[in-house]
Design brief:
Layout lengths: L1 E5 L8 E5 L9 E11 L1 H7 L12 E2 L3 E9 L11 E5 L2 H4 L9 E5 L3 E3 L6 H4 L3 H14 L6 E5 L4 H12 L3 E5 L5 H5 L5 E3 L11 E6 L5 H4 L2 E9 L13 E4 L6 H12 L7 E5 L4 H10 L5 E4 L2
Helix pairs in contact: 4-5, 4-8
Length: 304
């Protein structure tokens, strides 16, 4: 099969299309023919050597979330069948590039995938696992009182966009920081107030909770009221302990029932996602350049 490998630590030019042995579904695994694989900022960081824990020696394969068709089932997997469409997430920081979603096929544990609703396109489905699960679990960490106000920074992005929608549906008042010239789409997510990206955050708040999905660190932390809660997608400088702010970094977990609900909500239009571009595996380097340049309106998705 073909896959995209990081051949050296560096820029997008280190991504190369390579031939690898076809994976085989072992007991408890499913073999999936990948139809779509989302490109995430975490992929760009890993390609550049910015990974948690010990460095990863090239070559390695990138890619967290994917959608595709089951092409084989290992022993013990009886509830899925070949031809069934599924979406899932590879715990990339665990497998550390031994395999990834930037490939024509992946063999993953049965607990890594859920069926895709019939009326959900695989490209859209591939944008859901990492970003929507992160958003949902970030809100769970906050443990907000009913009707709370929270600031979400980065609502034009995947995690922030899903988080704003989920918080709004839960009855919270959402102050949403939009990307440049993206206020109209953010307003369409049902948020309470859209804040432009150029806003001076010192003029906002205090609010009891904030999700810094970009993250930018201190400017968002300053908005949180003393005794409030701040959740970020990457480590940021600690808040002064005297302020009593609960500070969390959301560490993504694949929870099958949660992912199934998020996919069902996306299929039904209760959650909105958007795709900026689809590109073949051979253009993975271009995909990384597009994401790095910023200003996209949606995700870049590789379609093997």
């Amino acid at each position: 099969m073909r896959a995209v490998a990081v051949t050296a630590i560096g820029g997008p030019e280190v991504l190369r299309l390579v031939d690898r042995p076809d994976p085989v579904a072992r007991p408890g695994q499913v073999l999936v023919r990948v139809l779509a694989a989302s490109v995430n900022p975490a992929d760009l960081a890993s390609r550049a050597g910015l990974v948690v824990g010990e460095p990863i020696e090239p070559p390695f394969v990138l890619g967290w979330d994917f959608a595709g068709e089951v092409s084989g089932c290992g022993d013990g997997v009886t509830d899925l069948r070949p031809g069934q469409r599924v979406a899932g997430m590879i715990p990339w920081y665990v497998v550390r590039g031994v395999y990834g979603a930037y490939a024509e096929q992946v063999a993953v544990g049965r607990d890594a995938v859920v069926p895709i609703p019939d009326d959900l396109d695989p490209v859209a489905a591939a944008t859901v696992p990492l970003n929507a699960l992160t958003a949902r679990q970030a809100l769970d960490l906050m443990a907000l009182d009913p009707g709370s106000t929270l600031l979400v920074n980065g609502v034009s992005g995947g995690v922030g966009g899903f988080a704003a929608q989920l918080a709004n549906r839960a009855g919270h008042r959402v102050l949403a920081v939009a990307g440049r010239d993206d206020e109209a789409w953010v307003a369409g997510l049902g948020v309470t107030e859209v804040l432009p990206r150029a806003i001076d955050l010192t003029t906002v708040g205090p609010v009891p909770a904030a999700l810094d999905a970009v993250p930018v660190g201190a400017p968002v932390a300053a908005v949180v009221a003393d005794g409030g809660v701040l959740v970020t997608t990457r480590p940021t400088p600690p808040v002064d302990p005297a302020r009593g702010v609960r500070q969390h970094v959301v560490l993504i977990r694949l929870v099958q029932p949660m992912l199934a609900d998020l996919l069902a909500d996306t299929a039904a239009g209760r959650l909105r996602t958007r795709v900026a571009a689809t590109l073949p595996l051979a253009e993975a380097a271009r995909a990384h350049r597009l994401v790095a340049a910023g200003g996209l309106r949606g995700k870049v998705v590789l379609v093997p």
